[in-house]
Amino acid sequence: MRRIPKDSWAIIEKVLRRYQDNKTEYENLIDELMERSPVQDGQPHGTSIVRPTELTAIQLVSASPKTARLKREINAVEAVYNQLRPEEQEVIRLRFFSSRSKNTPYWRLAAKCSYSERQMKRIISKTVSKVGEYLGEI
């Protein structure tokens, strides 16, 4: 496995740590778009799209760059996370998802899972590396 630059590592860690907040925000944005309905006053509106399904589809496709970034980050984390074994997923959950402001120290994780500190570092390094590849950060 090649060495990951410090700045890239920090960015990828933040993506992992923000995963749950990003997923909630993205789902809220999609729900908001899906619940919007255009005003139906019975009058013709020229060339504008008045069918709600078409309007929603266009809004989803032409989403803001922030929405596209959220979706890309969520997909990267989920793709890597879902490939891990359940024990490895537990390490990632404990390390990144339990505390959003800082990483949980390895010695605390060791009390909650069956891996040694070195094994946990390998799991986290492998996960960060794969997420970085998905995001194009590495």
Verbal overview:
The protein has 138 residues and is mainly alpha-helical. The chain has one domain (6-34, 51-135). Helix content is 70%, strand content 0%. It is built from six helices and no strands. The protein has helices at 6-35, 52-61, 65-83, 86-97, 106-112, 117-135. It is elongated and about 70 Å long.
Relevant terms:
mainly alpha
Quick overview:
With 138 residues, the protein is mostly helical.
Using the alpha-carbon principal axes, give the shape: elongated
| Portion in helices | over 70%
Radius of gyration over C-alpha positions, nearest whole angstrom: 20 Å
Strand content: under 5%
Q: What is the distance, rounded to the nearest whole angstrom, between the alpha carbons of the first and last residues? A: 12 Å
Number of helices: 6
What is the domain tally?
Answer: 1
What value does the average pLDDT take?
82
Note the main sheet. none
Order of helices and strands: HHHHHH
Task: Please identify the structural class as seen in this structure.
Answer: mainly alpha
**Number of β-strand runs:** 0
Q: Uncertain spans, ≥5 residues at pLDDT below 50?
A: none
